[in-house]
Design a protein that fits this description.
The chain is of the alpha/beta class and 317 residues long. It contains 14 helices and 11 strands. Helix 10 crosses helix 11, helix 11 crosses helix 12 and helix 12 packs antiparallel against helix 14. The protein is globular and about 70 Å long. The two termini are 19 Å apart.
């Protein structure tokens, strides 16, 4: 039995809109779409000038929803993110001044430039979809997605995200430099558009109600016990690898399962196959495990470790 064709259709429409502006990043765009329909947050890492912020803006344009952007800086305060209670002198009462997190798509630009106390203001928002201010809890709109960008090269004046913060992100995606032929295509597109890349070219293709109904369809995707055992074996292997200091959490195994179901739905299937799992393992786990320092000294990356684990874990048949 096939999945509801609306899921595939909306996915294809989303990808077509993204590719109007973003060039040569098909795998990256597919993973962004998976995160969107799975209902998770994304950490986008890459060197300056390759489209991290642009990617977040373009994805936000594909949804008929509200969008906010926060430029994270060292002097940013938690109340600048979540909001605060303000005293109204005229009425002698306090009223709630909502912060930029009260939106559907939040772009947290250069998140590692803010101090840890400001970064932690997003913890409750990202995990529970709520904000608590002065003892009162306010629910955030649905969908709520954080797209955070991070520069991996500049360490001066930045604050590394703690493990608890990283674990809130469904995926960590890396944008790399374009190959020469794609770079050439990008230059031609910029030249034809008058010297600029305009996210306004992207049209909204998904409403919040459609997003919710698609998520409900994805939740119906069947995953058998052998695939579940395959996922847990991969997670267990990260916890027992000699190259890893801290393995993936239970939240990580749930994330792998959810993303696998989303990918299966995008492929028009109502069941998960092992290839769905292997495709999402790296983006879902690469930021959730801590590698031993001696392993890094041997120039072995997190992705190398995950690739080795995938090859050693028996694939179900």
């Amino acid at each position: 039995m096939d999945i509801n064709p609306i899921v595939q259709k909306k996915y294809e429409m989303l990808m077509n809109e993204l590719k109007k502006v973003l060039v040569g990043q098909d795998e990256f765009l597919e993973h962004l779409a998976i995160a969107l329909f799975t209902g998770g947050h994304v950490l986008i890492e890459g060197v300056p000038g390759i489209g991290k912020t642009l990617s977040a803006r373009v994805l936000a344009r594909t949804i008929e929803s509200e969008f906010s952007r926060i430029q994270f800086t060292p002097d940013l305060m938690p109340s600048d993110v979540t909001g605060t209670k303000v005293f109204d002198v005229k009425n002698s009462t306090f009223y709630m001044k909502k912060g930029p997190v009260f939106t559907n798509i939040l772009l947290a630009d250069e998140i590692n430039r803010a101090a840890p106390k400001t970064q932690s203001a997003l913890l409750e928002c990202m995990e529970e979809g709520n904000v608590t201010i002065d003892g009162e809890t306010y629910e955030l709109p649905k969908p709520f997605m954080v797209l955070a960008t991070m520069n991996p090269l500049e360490f001066e004046g930045t604050y590394p995200l703690p493990e608890a913060q990283l674990d809130r992100f469904l995926m960590k995606l890396a944008i790399t430099h374009l190959p020469p032929e794609q770079e050439e295509l990008l230059l031609k597109r910029v030249n034809e558009s008058g010297g600029d890349i305009n996210p306004e070219k992207v049209a909204p293709v998904i409403t919040p109600d459609e997003w919710l109904s698609i998520r409900q369809e994805i939740n119906k995707v069947f995953i058998n016990e052998n695939i579940i055992r395959y996922i847990t074996s991969i997670i267990f292997a990260t916890r027992n690898s000699h190259a890893v200091l801290l393995g993936a959490s239970s939240r990580a195994s749930i994330a792998v399962m959810k993303c696998s179901k989303t990918l299966a739905a995008f492929s028009g299937r109502d069941f998960v196959i092992p290839e769905d799992v292997t495709e999402v393992v790296k983006p879902v786990l690469r930021h959730r495990i801590i590698v031993k320092p001696e392993t890094l000294l041997d120039n072995i990356s997190v992705d190398d470790i995950l690739e080795g684990i995938i090859k050693t874990v028996e694939v179900p048949r």
